[in-house]
Amino acid sequence: MRSHSVLLILSCCFLASCGDKAINNQASSPELPASSNPNTGSVSLPVLAETPAIAGSGCPAGSAQVELQPQSASIKLRFNDLVIGTGQDQNGNITCNLAIPVTVPNGYQVSLIPLHFTGNLSGNGLTIELRRAYFFAGSIGASQVSSLALPTDSQFSISDSVNPEDTLQWSNCGQDTNIRVNLRLRIKGGEGQANLKISSTDKAEPTLFKLNYRVCQ
User: Fold this and answer.
1) Domain ranges (residues) in the chain
2) pTM exceeding the 0.70 threshold for the entire prediction
3) Tens digits of per-residue pLDDT, 31-43?
4) How far apart are CA 87 and CA 31, in angstroms?
5) Which of 216, 211, 217, 44 is nearest to 112 (CA)?
6) Do the Cβ atoms of 112 and 134 come closer than 8 Å?
7) What is the separation of C-alpha 198 from the centre of its chain, rounded to a whole number of angstroms?
8) Do 66 and 51 contact (CB within 8 A), yes or no?
9) Looking at the domain 47-215, which fold is it?
10) Predicted pLDDT at 151
11) What does 115-147 look like in DSSP terms, one character per residue?
């Protein structure tokens, strides 16, 4: 009986030690990176913080339809045409300003968002000037100016772009910001009317404005 008891005790000790080893050999869960979302495990990327603000004599409140897209990485914007003219009750100098709030996590930068312009001129020797400035809130952007003096009933198209080598066209690293665009359209001479459409540079979906970002450089 004593030998059986000793064997039983040794067997129990052996099983207990095996159970301890099984528990101790389990790998601990790796910690999520500091820039990850603890709920989803996905890396945090720049996102549109809220609906853009649009104002100006050429695009008053309610004149543009704004729709944030899923994942908050893009927006759909549908602007009413900007119209200027020399006729009675027409304005020959109008503005349209856009402010897009963006949340930028550590390690990332966002770029300015260029626009595409199309339109038509009608009248007698009409000349208009399109002036626009792209910049981040708190800074000053250089103005781009296009002077349009086309034959009667002519159409025009202008597409701006971002130079990835230009540091001024990228936000500060990891700093929340407002992407700004200020537009001014005015008549410089002649008589008639001009209609201007504002869209994104995406030819496939001109109402879609995508947030462009990169790892800090």
Assistant:
1) 47-215
2) yes
3) 223 333 433 345 6
4) 67
5) 211
6) yes
7) 16
8) yes
9) Jelly Rolls (2.60.120)
10) 85
11) -EEEEEEEEEEEEEEEEEEEEETTS-PPEEEEE
